[in-house]
Amino acid sequence: MLDLEIVRCKVPILGSRTIPFDTGYWLYAAISRIEPGFHEADQYAISPIERGLAGSDGLALTPQSYFWLQCPLSDLGMVYRLAGKQAVLGDCRIRFGIPRPEVIRPASELVSRLVTVKNKTEPDELAAHIRSRLHALNESVTGKESQQAVEAIRIEILRRRVFRIKDKRIVGFGVRLRRLSDRMSLLVQCHSVSGRRRFGCGFFTSAGGSEEGA
Prior knowledge:
The protein is an alpha+beta fold and 214 residues long.
């Protein structure tokens, strides 16, 4: 299950208007309209939009704005076909730039802006689920680490956030993971500890260069 055939593509997102803060579902829907295969692909994941300017009425895109799209290496062609395509997020028109693939690299500290798990709406419940998921990920690979090593991973629950899919309101939290081995760091980034990854949830990046836990 330690799948090194998964890559992350940095996709520029271009536009002159302010977009809604909560764009996870809209971004998923926009990509699916351009590439219907994305709708059926379980291994796909997208990040929240980064390098935007937060204002009182939404997120203003800048020339540096982008998001990450994670996919199997074999599906890179589908991602490249997004380049230059126009889409609508809510009522805001945007255009995708040229995707740039990057290898997923381990980091001892990872952060996700929003992690959601069904029926886990309290910090302690979510932390317990994440711990269980970390053990399950460890058991899924050969050369697994000791249970003590997995227990040593620190789980920090951050801000409570509300995520919307159409009219459905979902509660989640930012999450920071510390003291990760290289193997566990790659497992979390490739396979995560929660669902709704195509909507921007449970997407972990290195805490050293991310704004997702803010």
